[in-house]
Amino acid sequence: MFSTRSPRPVLTASAAVLALLLTGCSQSGGEDSAEEPAIGAVPTLLESRSLTFPISAYLPDEQQLGVLGEAQDILIDQCMQRYGFRYQLRQKADPAVKHDFARRYGLSDPAEAARLGFENPQLSGREKPPQPQLGPNEKLVLHGLEVDPSLPVPMSQEEAEKSDVATTVVAGQKVPAGGCARESSLKLLSPTKDTVESMVVQGFGFDAYARSRKDSRVTKAIKSWSECMGKHGYTVDNPMDRPPGIEDANLSSPQAIAMAKQDVDCKKETNLVGIWYTVELAYQKRVIEQNAENLDRAKKQLDERMKLAASLIAGA
After folding, report:
1. What residue stretch is flagged as signal peptide (predicted)?
2. If 0-12 CB within 10 Å is exposed, 13-18 middle and 19+ buried, where does residue 305 land?
3. What stretch of H or E contains 310?
4. What is the Cα–Cα distance from 63 to 7, expressed in whole angstroms?
5. DSSP secondary structure letter of residue 104
6. Is the pTM value of this prediction over 0.70?
7. Could you report the per-residue pLDDT of 294-314, keeping only the tens digit for each?
8. How far is CA 259 from its chain centroid?
9. With CB atoms 3.0 to 4.6 Å apart as the test, which of 37, 53, 107, 228 could cross-link to 266 if both were Cys?
């Protein structure tokens, strides 16, 4: 997703769409989808920070997300100007920002564990930017009407231009469903009905990850990791959960650091990261093969979004 700095609804899909996606994904390969994919040789891995995943080729990276976010702010401002308002939250994309998978399979960096325990440096210190005070009409134009979330709303700009669902009027002009925030999202990310939303592509990745978590080779590795932790006095069975007794107030306490170091040591001893990563890759490759047409279209549409974003920024 984009940065949490602005109130826009980005890269979103309805729960129904995502449910249909995952149902289709599970059925797209017929009976073969129920079988565990072959994985070949398993590398020895520990830190997951720099891992790469094939599904990422079809999704915007962190730098592209920053550019898209900047462009979407411009579209929000253009929309707000139709009603006599301005949108002032625009920030420049940071070309240096990068995404990593440091906690993909739980804590796996020995140095980080020894220094921070279970504290996640990616989450600590994040603050929401100050939000401007909005007048009633300004808020209505930005966010649209508050409506029952179960009501159907247009899922593309093409549909929105023909729909009056959840719309209202301000200054004699129709405010679209979801206001300027949603309109900007649809214009940039879902202009037509055949758009493959980024959340759909993310859904393929979520499905592959969920399947890998239940794969017998991964569950066996997790059991081995849990047994290793048990030998050192820690009763834990899920490497993704915060261990018992570790709360927000003591993420970096001596107790937490000792447990975090042992957590990483046991991942190294059992090669949990190497096994899980290899299995997840196999599921991602399978889902990519099963959905090649949609994903190829998603890649082309991402390229089109980036060109549009660049033109908006250049003209601002």
Report:
1. 1-28
2. buried
3. helix 292-315
4. 20
5. B
6. yes
7. 999 999 999 999 999 999 999
8. 29
9. 228
